[in-house]
Write the C-alpha cells for this entry.
Amino acid sequence: MWGLASYIKPYLKFVILGPLFMILEVFFDLMQPKLAAHIVDFGVVARDFNVIERTGILMAVVTVLSLVTGVGCNLFASRASQNFGADIREALFKKVQTFSFDNMDTFKSGSLITRMTNDVVQVQNLLQMALQGLVRAPSLLIGSVVMALIINLRLGLVLLGTLIVLIIVLVLLIRSSSPLFAAVQTKLDAVNTRIQENLAGIRVIKAFVRSGYEKEQFQAVNRDYTEISIRAARFIALNSPIVTFIMNGCLVAILLYGGNQVSSGLGKVGDLVAFVNYVVQVLSSLVMVSGLLMNVTQANVSAKRIREVLDTHSAIEESKQEKAAPIAAEHVKLEQVSFSYNGSTAVKDLVLKDINIEARRGETVAIIGATGSGKSTLVQLLPRLYDVTSGSVQIDGTDIRELPLLTLRRQIGMILQDAFLFTGTIRDNIAFGKPNATQEEVEAAAMTAQAHDFISKLPEGYDTKLGQRGVNLSGGQKQRLSIARALLVKPPILIMDDSTSALDLITERRLRDALKQLTEDNITFLIAQRISSVMEAQQILVIDEGEIVGRGTHTELLATCDVYQDIYRSQYGKQEVSCGKQQSFRS
Amino acid sequence: MANSNPSDPNASTNKASSNFDQMGFRPGGGPQHAGVPKVRSKNASGTMRRIWGYLKQQRQALFWVILCTVLTSVFALLGPYLIGRMIDDYVMPKQFDGFVRMGMILLGVYLLSALFTWFQQYMASSLSQNTVRDMREDLFNQYQRLPVQFFDQKTHGELMSRTTNDISNVSNTLNQTVVQLISSVLMLVGSLVMMLTLSLWMTLITMLTIPLVAFITKRISKYMRHYFSEQQKQLGEVNGFVQENISGLKVVKVFGREEKAVEQFREINERLRAIGVKAQSLSGSMGPMMNTMRNISFLVIAVFGAVFAYHDMITVGVIVSFLNYSNQFSQPINQLANQYNMFQSAIAGAERVFEVLDLEPEISDDTAPKSQQALIHGEVVFEDVCFGYKPEVDVLKGVSLHAHPGQMIALVGPTGAGKTTVINLLTRFYDIRSGRITIDGEDIQQLDKQALRQQIGLVLQDAYVFSGTIRDNIRYGRLDATDREVEEAARLANADVFIRKLPRGYDTELSAEGSNLSQGQRQLLTIARAVLANPCILILDEATSSVDTRTELHIQEAMKTLMKGRTSFVIAHRLSTIQEADAILVIQDGQITEQGTHDQLIARNGFYNHMYQNQFAASAQ
C-alpha cells in the first residue's frame, strides 16, 4: 500500500484534514459518557437541577459538533479516496498503453483487467476506510482508555491490562487464520477454473460425452472448497465470542472493584456509569479494528498487484530522438537479426537466427513456413512490437530504435492474425486508424478488402453495430474488416500476418488482385500458409525453425528449396507438382 | 469476487457486531454501505421457498442456529439489566452482601452468551456453506445438461458471474443476514420489553428518536440509491472500456492509437471520479448521521433520566440500563435497512441461479423412447433436412446426403454456407427443423444423445484444451486408456514428436488457455484425443486449418489409417485435403449444389472446379 503513497500526495490536504476531523469527532463522542457521569454525580446524587440543565445543553452542543466533524471527515475522506482511485486508474491505463507485446504476454489480459478494475476499487475503499474507520477505532480505543484513567486511575489500569491481553489474543487469532484463508482462496480458484473451463469447452465435453466425469471432478473440488471454507469460517467464529467475553469479563471486574471503591468512598457512582460506557466503546472499536484489518490485508494484495503493473517498464524503450523526421519508407532492411523472448542469446532460446532481409518500395516479401517457425515474430519486429535481441532493423538506413515509436508505427499498417474488432459500428472499426475518414475512403478500403459486398447486404450496412469482439460476424468477415482497417490508413509499409486464413480461396484470390494495384507503391510483408497466396511475391522467404532456409521467387524455390517443395506438395498433391512447375515456368 | 470467502471483511464485521452489546459501533465505514446495491427480485416468495428447499436438507444445523440466536439475544438482553441491578441494589445503597455473587452471575451470563454465539456461528458456517455447495453443484450439473445453444447465446462472463457472485451472495446472506435479521428483531422486541418493565416514561422518551432515525435513513438512502446506481453505471462503463482496450491492445498499438485511447479513457474516468466523490460523500455520511442519532438518544436518556431520577421517579441503575438498551434498540433499526437490502440482492442472485436451473435440459427433450442400440456401421443419411438458428433465417434448405459406412465425405463451400451446421445437426447440438437424419437406419431424434455422441469423434476448428497435463488432455477421449494407449494415439496424430521435445513430455502442465502450446500443437492434441476415443463416425471440422500444410500432410497420413472402416466427415478450405474423399459435397447457400468424386466434379466444370482451379490460377498468371 505504501508503494502507492505518491498517488495520495495531490490530496494530502484531505488526507490530513480527514483524520483530524475524525479525531475531533471521537473526542466529542468520548465526552458524552463523562458528561453523563457528571449529570448523575452532581445532578442526581448531589440533587442540583441546574447541573442537569447546563450539562444537558453542553451535551447537545457536543452532539452537534460531533456531527459536523464526522460529516466533515467523510467529505474529506471521500474526496481523497475517489480522486486517489481515479488517478491510479488513469496511471494504470496509461501504463498499459505503453506495454510492449512482451509485457502483455507476461500479464494475462484477464489479470490486467482485474487489476485495473477490482483492485483499484479495493485500494480506493481502503483509503476511505483508513481515513475514517482506521483512525476512528484506535482513537476511540486510546481515548476511552485515557478518559478511563483520568476518571479513576485504578479502574483505568484494569481496563488497560485487559486490553493488552486482548490485543495479544487477537493478533494470535488473526495470524493463525491467515494460512487457512490462503487455502480457501486456492480452493476457490480451483472451483472457478473448473467452471470456466466447462463453459469454454462445453462442446468438447458434450462431444465426448464426459458430463458424468466433469460432474465428478467438480463435485470433488466443490466439496474440497466447502470443507475448507467451513473450517475457516468456524475459526473466524471464535473471534467475536472470545473478544466479547474478555471485555465483558473486564466489565464485571470493574463493576465489582468499582462498586467496592464507591462503598469505601473512593469513587463516585457516575464514574462507574461512565466507565461501563467506555468499556463498551473499547469493545466496539476493537471489533471494528479486527474487521478493518482484514480489509487491509485484502487491499494490500490489490495494491501489490497494481504496483506490479505500474512498476513494469515497457520492454520497448522510446527513442531519445524527439523530432520526428519524416520517413519515406523507401527501403527496409533487417541485418543479422536474432531474437529470443527472454532476451537471452543462447542458441536454444533463439526464435529467430541471423535473419537478413532487404525490401524496396513496390516489393512484396512473402514469408512461408511451418507453425511456430517464427514468421509472426519476425514481422512483429518491424513496428517494434518486440525489439531485436541482436542485429538491427533499418528503415531508409535508420535503425528503427532511433525513430520515435509513433512515427514508426504510423508508417506501418499491420493486420494481425487475430482479427479483433471493437464494439461500435462497422464504419468505426474500419476508420479506427483514421477516425476522420470520409465515407468514400471507408468504402474504398472495404471494397479492396472484399468486405463491401457483405457489408452492403447487412440491413444497416456500414452502421451495423458489432457486439463484443464482433461476435455476429464470421471469421472470414472479421478478417476482411481488419484488412480494410489497415488499408484505410494507406501505410507505406503493409504487413499481413496470415490474415486471410479464414477466407475461402475465391475471395482470397479477389482480395489479392485488388491489393495488387494498391500495394504497388508499398513495401508489403505477407505471411501465409498457402502457396497460392505467396507465389506472386518478388521475394519469398522460407522459414524453418527460426532460420531462412530458402529465398527467391516461386519458380526458383520450387527448383531449389526442399522445404518449399514439401509445402507445395502438401497443398497440391504429388501429381500436380510438375503441372504447377510448368505453369509457373510459362509465366 | 470471493464473497463467499469467510475472510470477507464485511462479513466478519457485521457478524461480530450483531452479537455485541456495544455502543458506538458505527456499522461499516463508508464503503460497506455503498457495497449493497438494491436489487428488486421478481418473485421473492417463490425464490425463498426454493432456498428453503435447500436449507431443509440441513435441518439440524438450522435448528441449532436459530435456537442459539434466540439464546444469544436473551443473554445479551440480560446483561444490561443485571448491571442496572448491581448499581441499584448494591452500589447505591452501599450494601455489598452478595455483590460478588451477583457479579459472578453476570459473568456466567456473559460466558453463556459467548458460548452460544460461538456455537451459532459454528453451525451457521456449515449450514450456509453446505447449502451453497449444493446449489453450486446443481448449477454445474445443469450446465452439463443444457444444450449447446444456451452457451452460444450467453457470454461466459455472465455465466461465470452466476456461478460465483450470485451464489456467494446467497451464501453471505445465509451466513449472516438471516441470523442478523432474526437477532435484530429479537433484540428490538426484547429491548423494548426490558425497557418497558424498567420505566414506561423513559421508554417513551427513548422512542422519540426513532421517527427521526427512520426519516433520516430514508432520505439518505433515497439519494444514495440514485447516486449509487449512477456510480455503478459509470464504473461499468470504465470496466467495459478497459476490458475492450486490453483485449484489443495489440490492435491499438499497431495503429498507434494509444494516445486517443488514453484520452477516451480519461473522459469516462473523470465522469466516474465526479460521481464517485458525490456518491461516497453521501453514503459515507450515513455513519456520522447514525452516530449522531446514537448521541442524541444518549443525551436524551442521560438528561431526562437525570430529571426523573432527580424527582425520584427512577433509579440511577435504570439510567445505566437504559443507556445500554437504547443502543441495543437503535442498532438493529439501523442495521435492518441494510440487511434488508442485502437480503434483496441475495434473493435476486438466487433468482438468476434458479433461472438457469429451470431451463429445459437437452436430455429431457427426448420424448420418444430412446434407443440404446449401438451404432456400429456408421451409415449416415440426411433426408431433406432444413434448419435455421433463428426462426426467420434458414441456414440449411433441404439438404440430403447419403454416407455409406466407411466412406469419407468432404463438405466444401464458401464461408458461412452451412458446412458446420451440418455437423451441429449430426451431433444433435441443435435439432433439425424438418426432414430426417438417420444413422444405420435409426432416426437420430429417437436416439439417446449420449449414446449418439459416444459414436462420433469430433475435432473442431477451435482446439480446446483443458488445464492439466498433456496426458490428461489426450486421455479425455477415453478415460480408462492406459499411458501406452495415450502415447500411441499421440503418435498416430503426429503429436508424439513435439510432446517428447517438451521438457516434461507428457506430464507438461497446460494452462487453461493452453497458451504454452501453439495453436497447431493444440490441434494435434485434440486430434489425438479423438483418435483415442475410437468412434465409428469421425468429424473433422477445419481440424487442420491452423496447422501448417506440411504438418497437415503428416496428420492426414495418420488420419487415413484412422478413417479406415469409419464414416468420416471432413470440412476443409484446402481442397488438397479432400481430393481423395469418396464423395465431395459442395454446399452453397444452405443447399448441396454439386456432389461426386474429385474427378467427377472437375469434369463437371462447376463451382468446385472453379475453386480448385483457383489454387493454381496464381501460378498460371
User: Anything to note?
Assistant: The two ends of chain A are 69 Å apart (CA to CA). The longest strand of chain A covers residues 331-339. Chain A touches chain B through 202 residues (CB under 8 Å).
